[in-house]
Structure formats: C-alpha cells, structure tokens
Amino acid sequence: MRTARLRTAHPVLWAGWAALAVGAVLCVIGWYGVSGERFAERQLPYLASCTVPGAALIIAGSVLLTHGRGALADARVEELYGLLVDAESANAAESGQSAGAPLAVSGDLLMVPGGTLWHRADCPLVTGKAEAVPVDAKLVRSGALGPCPICEPAEADD
Q1: Half-sphere exposure of residue 96, counting CA atoms within 13 Å on the CB side?
Q2: pLDDT tens profile 95-142
Q3: How many CB atoms lie within 10 A of CB 145?
Q4: Which is nearest to 121 in space by CA: 105, 143, 102, 145?
C-alpha cells in the first residue's frame, strides 16, 4: 500500500540530485574560468554566469533533498499509522467491539522517556515497554508532551 505522497517524493529527490550536480559543474567551470584570467574585470563574467548560478543550484538542490526526504518520512509514518489503525479495527471486529470504541480505557497515564506523546497504560504503543514511566505533569503542562492519537488520553482529564 504505497501512498501518492510517497510516489511524488521520488521526483523531488531526483530533481534535488540533478540540481546539485549541475550546480557543482557550473561552480567548477566558473572556478576554471576565473583561475585562467589575471584581471578582475575579466573574471567577473565567469562569476556572474557560472559560479553564482552554480551556488544557487547547490542550495536549491539541498533544499529539494531535505524536502523530499521529509516527505518520504511523512508518507511512511502515515502508511504505518494506517496499517496500525486497520489492524486494530480488524482485531476489534473479531473481538466484538465496535470500531468507534477507544483502543485503551485505562486511567493510568504513561510516557516513554525521550518520547513526545503521553498514553493510557493499556495503549498498544506502550503496552509491553519496560521503559514506560508514569507521566510527569510538568511536561504535560509545558506542552512538551502531546496526547497520543491512538488511545486519546486527553479524555481522561475531562
């Protein structure tokens, strides 16, 4: 199950690599032209026509590569989230629970050190993790931790 976002990220990566390559070639041509001229007024055309555009293409290629890799990571996370939700829906249907029922109902709240989310104790993302510890209320109040979208622990505070 490949998402459309995953398919559109590959051309961005190719464009980034192409821009980097063309920029590097232009910089080398500009350097070669500048190094062969003794006077500054004869070096300026090489700087203006090769080196500056080459540097701009290198920067643009770097930005495209960063964006493409971020898009790939986002698409993979969305794909994995979809698989997790589908698997949980299938398990809920087999066990007789409704698909709209929450996956976790425990009142105990946990977090994984270094993580960005807080969970209910029976959330599938922290179940079985020995490193899960009780939630630090200071982190939740400061906004450093967000509620898990799977087990929806924000409803526990209501």
Answers
A1: 0
A2: 655 545 555 556 678 888 878 888 888 887 887 788 888 887 787 788
A3: 21
A4: 105
Measured in whole angstroms, the distance separating CA 127 from the mean position of its chain's CA atoms is 25
Number of residues in the chain: 158
Kindly report the CA angle at 129 between 124 and 130, in degrees rounded to 5? 155
Q: Please write down the HEC assignment for all residues of 83-151.
A: HHHHHHHHHHHHHCCCCCCCCCCCCCEEECCCCCEEEECCCCCCCCCCCCEECCHHHHHHCCCEECCCC
Residue type, 39: F
- What is the pLDDT, as a whole number, of residue 75? 77
Instruction: Report helix, strand or coil for 5.
Output: helix
Q: What is the pLDDT of residues 70-94, one digit of tens each?
A: 877 877 888 888 778 777 666 666 6
Q: Higher model confidence: residue 25 or residue 33?
A: 25
Decide if 106 contacts 28 (C-beta within 8 A): no
**Contact in structure between 42 and 87 (CB atoms under 8 Å):** no
Q: Provide the residue type at 79 as one letter.
A: E
Left, alpha or beta for 96 (phi > 0: left; psi -120 to 50: alpha)?
left
